[in-house]
Design a protein that fits this description.
Length: about 240
């Protein structure tokens, strides 16, 4: 399987030719195309983000912004500690992510409370970085957001890219590559929204179920489509 487009408009998906593409330099004044990149755990979304960055995209990583939001000494960390207690603070003063994950993983109310603290901080920072990229003349900005659909943010972007892989492949990556116990890996996968619904709502779908060379070819085709789409936007 390969890159397809047209899913969100109800059109039959069509394959895009994977031709080589040279990144274009920034062009101040060019309309900015802001797209979202998402995918369920172990789908290979981060790899796709890195391949897009290599081609010239400005990538904004929501996970990195979330870590920044709760760094030691930040109001975000103070708010999380006030809600969940000192037990989620490590000896060095940083957030003990494993302890926090255990608290919120199976408690939807706790998870909602955590999201209410973190998400507004992340959204403000993402807006700042997007504005800075536009001012610098970036043509394509990619926001890497794992929980795009779960948080209802998909409508804020010009297009949505979904990276997907079969469940068996993703489970293998979690257990073999990340050394996560099988039961825990299955629970993490089950906690996320159905991948087929995400594919149906996407503008572009990348199937990451093969070798890195095949994935790179799909990303080349995707990048060409995104730059063409950005070039055709009105100022």
């Amino acid at each position: 399987m390969g890159l397809s487009d047209g899913a969100s408009t109800g059109k039959r998906n069509t394959r895009l030719a994977g031709t080589a593409f040279r990144p274009r330099p920034p062009n101040p004044g060019t309309p900015l195309l802001h797209v979202a990149l998402t995918g369920n755990i172990a789908s290979g979304k981060s790899t796709v983000a890195a391949l897009l960055a290599r081609r010239g995209a400005t990538v904004i990583d929501a996970d990195a912004l979330a870590r920044e939001a709760v760094a030691p000494g930040t109001p975000g960390l103070a708010a999380v500690v006030a809600r969940f207690g000192r037990a989620i603070v490590a000896q060095d003063g940083s957030l003990d992510r494993a302890a926090l994950r255990r608290l919120v993983f199976e408690d939807s109310a706790a998870r909602t409370a955590l999201e209410a603290i973190i998400h507004p901080i992340v959204q403000r920072r993402r807006a700042e970085l997007s504005a800075a990229a536009a001012a610098a003349g970036a043509q394509v900005v990619v926001s890497d957001i794992p929980l795009l659909f779960e948080t209802g943010l998909q409508g804020e972007f010009d297009a949505v890219i979904v990276v997907d892989a079969p469940e068996a492949v993703r489970l293998g990556r979690l257990t073999a590559d990340r050394l996560i116990p099988d039961a825990e890996a299955r629970a993490m996968m089950a906690a996320q929204a159905d991948a087929s619904a995400k594919r149906a709502a996407a503008d572009y779908v990348i199937a990451n179920d093969g070798a890195i060379g095949a994935l790179d070819g799909q990303v080349e085709a995707l990048w060409r489509a995104l730059v063409d789409r950005a070039s055709n936007r009105s100022p």
